[in-house]
Amino acid sequence: MATSRRFFLSLLVLMVSACTKQAHTAPYINFSKVKSDSEPEATADPYIPPTRIPDQPIYTPTPSAPKLLPPLRTEDITYIVQWGDTLKSIAYQNNLLPQQIIDANEIANPSLIYTGQALLLPAPDIKDTGPGFKLIPDSELVHSPYTVRFHTVSYINNQSGYLKDYQEEVNGESQTGSEIVQRISEDYSINPRLLIALIEYQSQWVTTRSDKDNPYPLNHKEAGYEGLYRQLAWAADELNRGYYLWKVRGIGTWTMTDGINVPINATINAGSAGVQHLFSRLLPYKNWLSAVSEEGFFSTYSSLFGYPFDYTFSPLVPEGLTQPQLQLPFEDGVTWLFSGGPHGGWDTGSAWAALDFAPIPGDVGCSSSNAWVVAVADGIIVRSDHGAVVQSLDGDPYSQTGWSILYMHIETRDRVKTGSRIKAGDRIGHPSCEGGISTGTHLHIARRYNGEWIPADQDISFIMDGWVSQGLGFAYQGIMTRGEQVIRAEDTNTDYNHIQR
């Protein structure tokens, strides 16, 4: 892990005084004493991990060993448009802004690009390497174990700002500001403290009532992203994108809103990379430098929650971690379709943690299905709403600790209840299109460990009943193998994507 508790570097300019609003210190959690049928406690026992000595000056963690990053592109290239490409996706994959591609190719209608079209991609404008200052530990980006005793709704409701009174209709349901923060945190597996600090940094909605009529509280001013829910969903996805791309060495520069590219400092950690990436999507170069400095977002976070590295939980994913034994998520003798290979656990920015399965016939859109999704292992249902069912596999009622499984697009009808203790093979509910975006009835299933999305195409193989997932380099494309048997993901009913227990 990037963050180490054993090392210290330079004295921060920022000092936490006695009047600092440290509303919640890092909680001590003795997981061996957590009762499996208990609810999260409302108290927070003071706990100061060994990142610093109480009442002593705060030191930043030392830089991590440099990470090998992709080489920087310094010349113009020609790109051939692939199926599913958009100008935005091409631009972001090549460290450009869409307008730079439009200008270089004199494109009259940006919506009318076509598969096979050749596009000139100009060389990016590259500045000096970005700062190496660590903003947060990895465990403060993901919905990690140190969030178990943090109560999002209570915290926000105890503040004086507009956020506690905010209300918005989300998919036909009225939700408060605190409920929206909690929902985004659970959906994307992003730390609620991080989301709250971002809202405060961008709009001051947590502590003041200023700018309350702003439809873009995170200042992502793009049509279709009005309101707190869509702003936070976009931000959570971008935080995940920076975090998980950094972990797999999939990105080498941040592209600012003014088109300037900044090579990433190779010694930051994944959590800091996620925050740096998000602000690169929001700010021009000079403003970005300020936001990712000690006096920027870090200062805002510290004023709300104290020193972020007091919440270090490391390692989130221990070296040598192996997956528990899992079965396929459908009943014995019933044939399903392997309809989607490795892709985002939630939205497009998270790790490719998910696989898709569809009941036969599998090509009739969002039709009602009487097929059953079943549990892949023993555990406790810790969430059942908005099309999502989350199961904790380690005996406690928390999705943030140990292994958890997300079953997505589960119909409301017959859906298992929160708090249910279930065995492998017990019924979860029916596949559907509920929750998220779906063009056909199916099950989306993904794994997390300590809140981190676990890819289905990397070192910790996604194995169910001996079937092993493999990715083919593109989202949704993949195969599953069991001995000499091989099936390939396809979103229709074919001869080569049938699977059963």
Summary keywords:
3 domains, four-stranded antiparallel β-sheet, nine-stranded antiparallel β-sheet, single chain, Glucose Permease (Domain IIA), alpha+beta, 501 residues, disordered N terminus, Membrane-bound Lytic Murein Transglycosylase D, Chain A
Summarize the structure.
This protein has 501 residues and is an alpha+beta fold.
| Rg calc | 23 Å
Would you report the number of β strands? 22
Catalogue the unreliable spans. 1-51
Distance N to C terminus: 37 Å
Question: In percent, how much strand structure appears in the residues?
Answer: 15-25%
Summarize the structure in words:
The protein has 501 residues and is of the alpha+beta class. It has 3 domains: 31-64 and 130-311, no CATH class; 77-123, Membrane-bound Lytic Murein Transglycosylase D, Chain A; 336-499, Glucose Permease (Domain IIA), CATH 2.70.70. Helix content is 19%, strand content 18%. The chain has 9 helices and 22 strands. The chain has helices spanning 87-93, 98-105, 152-157, 177-188, 192-203, 228-247, 270-282, 285-291, 297-305, and strands spanning 77-80, 118-121, 125-126, 167-170, 173-176, 253-255, 260-263, 336-343, 354-359, 373-374, 379-385, 388-392, 403-408, 421-422, 427-429, 443-449, 452-453, 463-464, 467-471, 478-482, 485-488, 498-499. Strands 8, 9, 11, 12, 13, 14, 16, 17 and 22 form a 9-stranded antiparallel β-sheet that branches. The chain has a 4-stranded antiparallel β-sheet with strand order 18-19-20-21, with no helix packed on it. The longest helix has 20 residues, at 228-247. The protein is globular and about 60 Å long. The two termini are 37 Å apart. The relative contact order is 0.13.
